[in-house]
């Protein structure tokens, strides 16, 4: 599995170029709204409950400036990946106290056929170790160039 | 959606999350990626709070199903119960059943339309 396989689970409709929210819960809500708007998913309450619980287990802001809110839920039938950015930065309770500007939200059904969910998470967290790539992704003008940069990196 | 069904779905999702966090191999995989899983006690407390919101009959039935099958709530996809793959009558999706908790007539699992 590679980045191209990961990108099959996202789409231009699941790309939020600049979040309005600057606080954690509001940012999660805005991303869930983006997910609902761009997919057949309807149960925003269950999604938000699951994501909030996951954040209570431990913040998913694991790299300087990047977070990976994720989880499995009955509310979805397949893996969806939403990408979001924030120019202002969101206080996502990162351990180092830094603001988060780049988000990859992964939502999967309870059965993870082919381990796509966990493999996608592993590929993205690994890619985001690259500081230069993270900076490029924050500057790309649109979804297509974002994906191109991610594949090149 | 029926509010009790909403709680049942959230409870099952939460139990799955706790199970994954307690699974050494899965937890190790996530920790290798940089995730901190230190809030497990908080999740268990959240699980107790959710269970307290259930009517006793739903709570007891959920536990029996979970003991029997591993999962009590299953999605309906393409008119099939994804627990036992038997056909779900189309009448189940009628307006009269909209706010009810429905069970598969074959296996008894709680049905959820995602």
Descriptive notes:
The complex is a heterodimer of chains A (153) and B (114). Chain A is of the alpha/beta class. Helix content of chain A is 42%, strand content 20%. Chain A has six helices and six strands. Chain A has helices at residues 3-7, 24-38, 44-57, 116-127, 131-139, 143-152, and strands at residues 15-16, 61-63, 66-67, 70-72, 80-90, 100-108. In chain A, helix 2 (24-38) crosses helix 3 (44-57) and helix 5 runs antiparallel to helix 6. Chain A is globular. Chain A starts with a helix and ends with a helix. The model of chain A has no long low-confidence stretch (mean pLDDT 94). A three-stranded mixed β-sheet of chain B has the order 2-1-3. In chain B, 27% of the residues are buried. Chain B contains four helices and three strands. Helices cover 49% and strands 9% of the residues of chain B. Chain B has helices at 3-22, 24-32, 40-52, 56-69, and strands at 73-77, 80-81, 110-112. In chain B, a hairpin with a 2-residue loop joins strand 1 and strand 2. By secondary structure, chain B is mostly helical. The A-B interface holds A 41, 43, 45-46, 49-50, 53-54, 56-60, 62-63, 68, 71-77, 95, 109-110, 118, 121-122, 125-126 and B 1, 6, 9-10, 12-14, 16-17, 20-21, 26, 29-30, 33-40, 42-43, 46, 71, 73, 75, 77, 112, 114.
